[in-house]
Amino acid sequence: MTELEPITPDDALEMYLEDVSGELSPNTINAKEYQLGFFVRWCDGADADEPRIENLNDIRGRDFTRFKNWRKEDIGKVTLKTNLSALRTFMEFCVKIDAVESDIPDKINVPKLDQGENQRDTLMEAEQAQSILEYLHRYEYASLDHALFLTQWKTGMRMSAIHSLDVDDIQFDEAKLEVRNRPEEGTRLKNGPDGERIVTVSDDVVQILEDYINTNRVDVTDDYGREPLFTTRYGRMHKNQLNKHVYGITTPCNVGMDCPSEKKPESCEYAGGYDANIKCPHSTRPHDVRRGSITTYLRDGVPEKAISDRMNVAVKTLDRHYDQRTMDEKAEMRRDYFQ
Questions:
Q1: Which of 46, 50, 174, 217 could cysteine-pair with 41, CB 3.0–4.6 Å?
Q2: What residues pair up with 178 in beta bridges, in sequence order?
Q3: pLDDT band, residue 35 (cuts 50/70/90)
């Protein structure tokens, strides 16, 4: 039996994050630090009079049950599963550094999800996207918001890919966008080099992007001398700021739509700025714009393999997390093929 070496939960987490820093993307590491931070705070005595676990050598199976019951009060089943899965991986690392007994990871009871539980059914419908595009084309032509929303809806890109785009990545004559992974220059794609691809778009999209660049893009370079497509006067627009713009674009009162809650913009607590728009129950998450774009292409009969390559998502993941067609819709599309 291996002799354990004393270590605090906080020190073990720091060692773990340093160990995976060369293997995982910065976003993934930040996510793990956030998820495991709850366990460390619980060990330190969050909502308790004194620390619960000061030395990981002393942790036992019942401690994980106590933590699970404490954590699940504030989150849903899907998030709880994600947190406990991360904790099990962390404990497997702790076994390797002689911090816990070898059987400890197996004592973490990760909940199983019923079919469909790990699947969001929220998405932007094509009719809403088209209404937004018509409004932007008429009243905010070639603005940053117009170029941004048009790019995301027509390509279904993740925000990390949109964030990575430079002016030079647009092939105007051939109507193509080149998506490249450049982590050493501040733009990492979610799937790294495997996320690199060329995305074709229509001539209309290229024309609007060209007009945006010529009239409304802030003409600056970033810290690496590149010319980002979406900019502020300080350089490349941050992904969080891009997300805020999407929330703003999809808030109904900002694009000439009636408020589903029948509120007036001048008195609504969700109007008046990007931070307020994020909280609006009728705005749309950027990822749900992507999901809506993918579902629209599927409904239009585009083959799954073509969508998989274009949107950089595995066909299995496409079926499980993005395809929001009903069973009847799928059956009717199969009928078209077989007839």
A1: 46
A2: 198
A3: confident
